[in-house]
Amino acid sequence: MKKNNHLNGTNDNSNNPQNFGTPNQPPYNTPYQQPFQQPQAWQQAAYPPRQNFIAADQRVSLERDHHKPSKSKRRWQFKWYDAIILLVALIMFSSAAYYFISSRATREKQKKISSELYDLVPVEQQVDPNNRQGIYVDPDANKVAGEQWEVFSNNGESYPQGKKVLIQPIGRLQISSIDLSLPILSKAGLIELRYGIGHHQTSAPLYGDSGLSVLFGHHMIEKGHYFNRLDEVEIGAEVKVLGNNKEYTYKVDKRLIVQPQEIVPLIKEKTADKYLLMITCVNPPSFDQRLLVYAKLTDVKDLTSPKSN
Protein backbone atom coordinates (compact mmCIF):
# COMPACT_ATOMS: atom_id res chain seq x y z
CA MET A 1 0.00 0.00 0.00
CA LYS A 2 1.36 3.35 -1.03
CA LYS A 3 1.92 5.69 1.85
CA ASN A 4 0.42 9.17 1.69
CA ASN A 5 3.52 11.10 2.60
CA HIS A 6 1.88 14.55 2.65
CA LEU A 7 -0.23 13.50 5.64
CA ASN A 8 2.76 12.97 7.92
CA GLY A 9 4.71 15.98 6.70
CA THR A 10 7.14 14.05 4.50
CA ASN A 11 7.85 14.28 0.83
CA ASP A 12 8.61 11.74 -1.80
CA ASN A 13 11.88 13.43 -2.47
CA SER A 14 12.92 13.48 1.19
CA ASN A 15 15.26 10.55 0.71
CA ASN A 16 17.19 12.45 -1.87
CA PRO A 17 19.49 14.92 -0.10
CA GLN A 18 19.82 16.97 -3.25
CA ASN A 19 16.04 17.39 -3.62
CA PHE A 20 15.25 18.11 0.07
CA GLY A 21 12.20 20.29 0.54
CA THR A 22 9.50 21.45 -1.80
CA PRO A 23 10.06 22.83 -5.26
CA ASN A 24 9.26 26.38 -3.99
CA GLN A 25 11.36 26.06 -0.82
CA PRO A 26 15.19 25.77 -0.82
CA PRO A 27 16.80 23.10 1.30
CA TYR A 28 17.85 24.04 4.86
CA ASN A 29 20.31 21.89 6.69
CA THR A 30 20.31 23.67 10.14
CA PRO A 31 17.69 25.32 12.36
CA TYR A 32 19.49 28.70 12.02
CA GLN A 33 18.83 28.73 8.31
CA GLN A 34 15.06 28.64 8.71
CA PRO A 35 13.38 31.61 7.01
CA PHE A 36 11.93 34.48 9.07
CA GLN A 37 8.22 34.15 9.65
CA GLN A 38 5.99 37.13 10.32
CA PRO A 39 4.33 37.01 13.79
CA GLN A 40 0.73 36.02 13.92
CA ALA A 41 -1.98 38.52 14.82
CA TRP A 42 -2.36 37.21 18.37
CA GLN A 43 1.40 37.59 18.90
CA GLN A 44 1.31 41.23 17.80
CA ALA A 45 -1.50 41.93 20.22
CA ALA A 46 0.29 40.27 23.14
CA TYR A 47 3.67 41.84 22.37
CA PRO A 48 3.22 45.27 20.77
CA PRO A 49 6.29 46.81 19.13
CA ARG A 50 8.60 49.01 21.24
CA GLN A 51 7.73 52.13 19.28
CA ASN A 52 4.17 51.82 20.57
CA PHE A 53 5.44 52.11 24.17
CA ILE A 54 7.58 55.14 23.28
CA ALA A 55 4.67 56.83 21.59
CA ALA A 56 2.49 56.19 24.64
CA ASP A 57 5.14 57.70 26.96
CA GLN A 58 5.36 60.74 24.73
CA ARG A 59 1.60 61.18 24.83
CA VAL A 60 1.63 61.09 28.65
CA SER A 61 4.45 63.62 28.73
CA LEU A 62 2.62 65.93 26.34
CA GLU A 63 -0.56 65.66 28.40
CA ARG A 64 1.39 66.48 31.58
CA ASP A 65 3.11 69.48 29.99
CA HIS A 66 -0.23 70.70 28.68
CA HIS A 67 -1.32 71.57 32.22
CA LYS A 68 1.88 73.54 33.01
CA PRO A 69 1.80 77.30 32.56
CA SER A 70 3.74 78.57 29.61
CA LYS A 71 7.21 79.92 30.30
CA SER A 72 6.28 83.10 28.53
CA LYS A 73 3.44 83.59 31.03
CA ARG A 74 5.57 82.92 34.16
CA ARG A 75 7.12 86.25 35.22
CA TRP A 76 9.11 87.00 38.40
CA GLN A 77 7.40 89.60 40.55
CA PHE A 78 9.42 91.75 42.99
CA LYS A 79 8.11 91.32 46.53
CA TRP A 80 8.71 93.55 49.56
CA TYR A 81 10.70 90.83 51.35
CA ASP A 82 12.97 90.56 48.31
CA ALA A 83 14.01 94.15 48.95
CA ILE A 84 14.87 93.33 52.57
CA ILE A 85 16.94 90.29 51.56
CA LEU A 86 18.77 92.34 48.94
CA LEU A 87 19.47 95.12 51.44
CA VAL A 88 20.80 92.71 54.09
CA ALA A 89 23.05 91.00 51.53
CA LEU A 90 24.38 94.38 50.38
CA ILE A 91 25.14 95.46 53.96
CA MET A 92 26.91 92.18 54.73
CA PHE A 93 29.01 92.40 51.56
CA SER A 94 29.92 96.03 52.24
CA SER A 95 30.86 95.26 55.85
CA ALA A 96 33.03 92.31 54.84
CA ALA A 97 34.76 94.35 52.14
CA TYR A 98 35.37 97.25 54.53
CA TYR A 99 36.70 94.94 57.25
CA PHE A 100 39.06 93.22 54.81
CA ILE A 101 40.38 96.47 53.34
CA SER A 102 40.66 98.29 56.68
CA SER A 103 42.32 95.29 58.39
CA ARG A 104 44.87 95.01 55.62
CA ALA A 105 45.60 98.75 55.79
CA THR A 106 45.97 98.53 59.58
CA ARG A 107 48.43 95.64 59.34
CA GLU A 108 50.52 97.52 56.80
CA LYS A 109 50.73 100.55 59.12
CA GLN A 110 51.65 98.31 62.05
CA LYS A 111 54.42 96.66 60.03
CA LYS A 112 55.79 100.01 58.89
CA ILE A 113 56.04 101.41 62.42
CA SER A 114 57.39 98.09 63.73
CA SER A 115 60.14 98.13 61.11
CA GLU A 116 61.08 101.70 62.02
CA LEU A 117 61.25 100.78 65.71
CA TYR A 118 63.42 97.77 64.88
CA ASP A 119 65.90 100.03 63.09
CA LEU A 120 66.04 102.42 66.06
CA VAL A 121 67.42 99.78 68.44
CA PRO A 122 70.98 100.76 69.51
CA VAL A 123 72.49 97.32 68.93
CA GLU A 124 76.14 98.30 69.11
CA GLN A 125 75.96 100.75 71.97
CA GLN A 126 74.81 100.86 75.57
CA VAL A 127 71.13 101.50 76.17
CA ASP A 128 70.54 104.78 77.99
CA PRO A 129 67.15 104.61 79.74
CA ASN A 130 67.06 108.40 79.97
CA ASN A 131 67.90 108.99 76.32
CA ARG A 132 65.97 106.44 74.31
CA GLN A 133 64.77 107.01 70.81
CA GLY A 134 61.21 106.23 69.88
CA ILE A 135 58.18 106.99 67.75
CA TYR A 136 55.03 108.88 68.74
CA VAL A 137 51.79 107.18 67.76
CA ASP A 138 48.09 107.92 68.01
CA PRO A 139 46.63 105.86 70.92
CA ASP A 140 43.39 105.36 68.97
CA ALA A 141 45.03 104.18 65.75
CA ASN A 142 45.83 100.68 64.46
CA LYS A 143 43.94 98.81 67.15
CA VAL A 144 44.15 95.03 67.27
CA ALA A 145 40.83 93.17 67.12
CA GLY A 146 40.03 91.69 70.52
CA GLU A 147 42.85 93.48 72.34
CA GLN A 148 42.30 93.82 76.06
CA TRP A 149 44.23 94.12 79.27
CA GLU A 150 45.35 90.83 80.69
CA VAL A 151 44.32 90.13 84.27
CA PHE A 152 47.89 90.85 85.40
CA SER A 153 49.06 93.58 83.03
CA ASN A 154 46.88 96.62 83.74
CA ASN A 155 48.80 98.32 86.50
CA GLY A 156 46.61 101.40 86.50
CA GLU A 157 48.24 102.58 83.30
CA SER A 158 46.23 105.06 81.28
CA TYR A 159 46.87 107.16 78.21
CA PRO A 160 45.94 110.85 77.97
CA GLN A 161 43.15 111.59 75.56
CA GLY A 162 44.14 113.46 72.42
CA LYS A 163 47.88 113.08 73.04
CA LYS A 164 50.29 110.84 71.21
CA VAL A 165 52.14 108.07 73.01
CA LEU A 166 55.89 107.50 72.79
CA ILE A 167 56.86 103.93 71.84
CA GLN A 168 60.47 103.08 72.71
CA PRO A 169 62.41 99.99 71.55
CA ILE A 170 65.00 98.43 73.86
CA GLY A 171 66.15 95.42 71.82
CA ARG A 172 65.65 93.08 68.90
CA LEU A 173 64.13 89.61 69.09
CA GLN A 174 65.18 87.04 66.48
CA ILE A 175 63.91 83.46 66.09
CA SER A 176 65.31 81.97 62.90
CA SER A 177 63.19 78.79 63.02
CA ILE A 178 60.02 80.83 62.38
CA ASP A 179 61.67 83.68 60.45
CA LEU A 180 60.90 86.25 63.17
CA SER A 181 62.66 89.60 63.63
CA LEU A 182 60.81 92.11 65.80
CA PRO A 183 61.53 95.05 68.09
CA ILE A 184 61.33 94.51 71.86
CA LEU A 185 59.51 97.50 73.36
CA SER A 186 59.98 98.98 76.83
CA LYS A 187 56.38 98.20 77.90
CA ALA A 188 53.77 95.52 77.29
CA GLY A 189 50.76 97.85 77.19
CA LEU A 190 47.84 97.88 74.79
CA ILE A 191 49.43 100.41 72.44
CA GLU A 192 52.95 98.95 72.54
CA LEU A 193 51.75 95.48 71.57
CA ARG A 194 50.25 96.87 68.36
CA TYR A 195 53.75 97.49 67.04
CA GLY A 196 56.00 94.79 68.46
CA ILE A 197 56.88 92.55 71.40
CA GLY A 198 56.46 94.12 74.83
CA HIS A 199 58.69 93.61 77.88
CA HIS A 200 56.67 93.16 81.06
CA GLN A 201 58.06 95.86 83.36
CA THR A 202 57.63 93.96 86.63
CA SER A 203 59.71 91.03 85.35
CA ALA A 204 63.52 90.80 85.39
CA PRO A 205 65.47 93.34 83.30
CA LEU A 206 66.08 92.28 79.72
CA TYR A 207 69.85 92.71 79.99
CA GLY A 208 70.54 91.05 83.33
CA ASP A 209 72.55 88.03 84.42
CA SER A 210 69.68 86.24 86.16
CA GLY A 211 65.93 86.23 86.56
CA LEU A 212 62.92 85.73 84.30
CA SER A 213 62.40 88.36 81.58
CA VAL A 214 58.82 88.18 80.29
CA LEU A 215 57.88 89.15 76.71
CA PHE A 216 54.32 89.46 75.39
CA GLY A 217 53.15 89.46 71.78
CA HIS A 218 49.88 89.21 69.90
CA HIS A 219 48.89 86.09 67.97
CA MET A 220 47.85 87.92 64.81
CA ILE A 221 45.62 86.44 62.10
CA GLU A 222 48.18 86.90 59.33
CA LYS A 223 50.73 84.09 59.23
CA GLY A 224 54.12 85.18 60.53
CA HIS A 225 52.83 88.46 61.98
CA TYR A 226 54.18 88.98 65.54
CA PHE A 227 53.79 85.80 67.65
CA ASN A 228 51.48 84.08 65.15
CA ARG A 229 53.95 81.19 64.74
CA LEU A 230 55.29 80.97 68.29
CA ASP A 231 53.57 77.60 68.69
CA GLU A 232 55.92 76.25 65.99
CA VAL A 233 59.03 76.94 68.10
CA GLU A 234 60.25 73.56 69.33
CA ILE A 235 62.38 72.46 72.26
CA GLY A 236 66.03 73.17 71.47
CA ALA A 237 65.33 76.09 69.12
CA GLU A 238 67.57 79.16 69.41
CA VAL A 239 66.24 82.57 70.38
CA LYS A 240 68.42 85.66 70.14
CA VAL A 241 68.15 89.08 71.75
CA LEU A 242 70.28 91.88 70.33
CA GLY A 243 70.90 95.13 72.14
CA ASN A 244 73.01 96.87 74.75
CA ASN A 245 76.08 96.16 72.60
CA LYS A 246 75.60 92.38 72.98
CA GLU A 247 74.02 89.35 71.36
CA TYR A 248 72.26 87.04 73.84
CA THR A 249 71.58 83.47 72.72
CA TYR A 250 68.84 81.47 74.44
CA LYS A 251 67.74 77.86 73.93
CA VAL A 252 64.11 76.77 74.35
CA ASP A 253 63.73 74.09 77.04
CA LYS A 254 60.04 74.19 78.05
CA ARG A 255 56.55 74.91 76.69
CA LEU A 256 53.26 75.28 78.56
CA ILE A 257 49.63 76.01 77.71
CA VAL A 258 47.63 77.53 80.57
CA GLN A 259 44.55 79.61 81.33
CA PRO A 260 45.03 83.41 81.57
CA GLN A 261 44.44 83.46 85.33
CA GLU A 262 47.23 80.91 85.83
CA ILE A 263 49.94 83.20 84.47
CA VAL A 264 50.35 85.45 87.52
CA PRO A 265 52.38 83.04 89.69
CA LEU A 266 54.34 81.83 86.67
CA ILE A 267 55.71 85.22 85.67
CA LYS A 268 56.74 85.91 89.26
CA GLU A 269 58.91 82.83 89.59
CA LYS A 270 62.45 83.41 90.82
CA THR A 271 65.40 81.76 89.14
CA ALA A 272 69.17 81.99 89.55
CA ASP A 273 69.63 81.40 85.83
CA LYS A 274 68.77 83.88 83.12
CA TYR A 275 65.52 82.96 81.35
CA LEU A 276 63.36 84.46 78.64
CA LEU A 277 59.62 83.76 78.81
CA MET A 278 57.57 84.47 75.67
CA ILE A 279 53.77 84.52 76.00
CA THR A 280 50.97 84.74 73.42
CA CYS A 281 47.33 83.76 72.93
CA VAL A 282 46.37 80.39 71.43
CA ASN A 283 43.29 78.27 70.70
CA PRO A 284 41.54 80.27 67.97
CA PRO A 285 38.97 81.60 67.44
CA SER A 286 38.32 82.25 71.13
CA PHE A 287 42.03 82.58 72.05
CA ASP A 288 41.12 81.70 75.62
CA GLN A 289 44.44 80.02 76.42
CA ARG A 290 48.04 81.20 76.72
CA LEU A 291 51.17 79.62 75.31
CA LEU A 292 54.34 80.01 77.39
CA VAL A 293 57.74 79.31 75.82
CA TYR A 294 60.76 79.25 78.15
CA ALA A 295 64.30 79.78 76.82
CA LYS A 296 67.50 79.62 78.90
CA LEU A 297 70.49 81.88 78.28
CA THR A 298 73.40 79.87 76.88
CA ASP A 299 75.77 82.43 75.37
CA VAL A 300 76.57 86.15 75.33
CA LYS A 301 78.57 87.70 72.52
CA ASP A 302 80.12 91.17 72.69
CA LEU A 303 79.33 93.24 69.60
CA THR A 304 81.87 95.96 70.28
CA SER A 305 83.97 96.55 67.20
CA PRO A 306 87.70 96.12 67.93
CA LYS A 307 89.53 99.43 67.97
CA SER A 308 92.25 99.85 65.39
CA ASN A 309 95.67 101.15 66.52
From TrEMBL:
> Which superkingdom is the protein from?
Bacteria
Which range is the signal sequence, renumbered to this chain?
Answer: none
Output compositional bias ranges, type Polar residues: 1-22
Q: Where is the composition biased (Low complexity)?
A: 30-43
**Segments for region (Disordered):** 1-43
Residue stretches spanning the membrane? 80-101
Question: Could you confirm whether the keyword Transmembrane appears in this record?
Answer: yes
Q: Which residues form the active site?
A: H218, C281
Q: What InterPro entries does the entry give?
A: Sortase (IPR005754), Sortase_D_2 (IPR042000), Sortase_dom-sf (IPR023365)
Pfam families linked: Sortase (PF04203)
For this chain, one GO molecular function annotation is: hydrolase activity
The answer to keyword Hydrolase applying to this record is yes
UniProt keywords, alphabetically? Hydrolase, Membrane, Transmembrane, Transmembrane helix
Q: Which NCBIfam families match?
A: sortase_fam
The entry's protein name is: Sortase family protein
Q: Which organism is it from?
A: Mageeibacillus indolicus (strain UPII9-5)
